[in-house]
Amino acid sequence: MQAKSLSLDWQDWLERWDRQQSGHVPDREQRFQAMLDVLEVMLP
């Protein structure tokens, strides 16, 4: 038996993951932005 070479399109995988997560977590991007805004204020 020969091992198959696994080649993934990582950009496509990431885009599909983001779409899937956005469907399950409302306002996902806004939540991330809020967390980053807090870190920016707290960490000079």
Characterization of this structure:
There is one protein chain. By secondary structure, the protein is mainly alpha-helical. It has one domain (10-42). It is built from 2 helices and no strands. The chain has helices at 10-24, 28-42.
Throw out a few tags for this protein:
44 residues, mainly alpha, elongated
Q: Main β-sheet, in a few words?
A: none
Helical amount:
55-70%
pLDDT averaged residue by residue: 89
Total tally of structural domains? 1
- Series of secondary-structure elements, N-terminal to C-terminal: HH
Q: Distance between termini? A: 57 Å
Topology:
Blueprint: H1 10-24, H2 28-42
In short:
The chain has 44 residues and is mainly alpha-helical. The chain has helices at residues 10-24, 28-42.
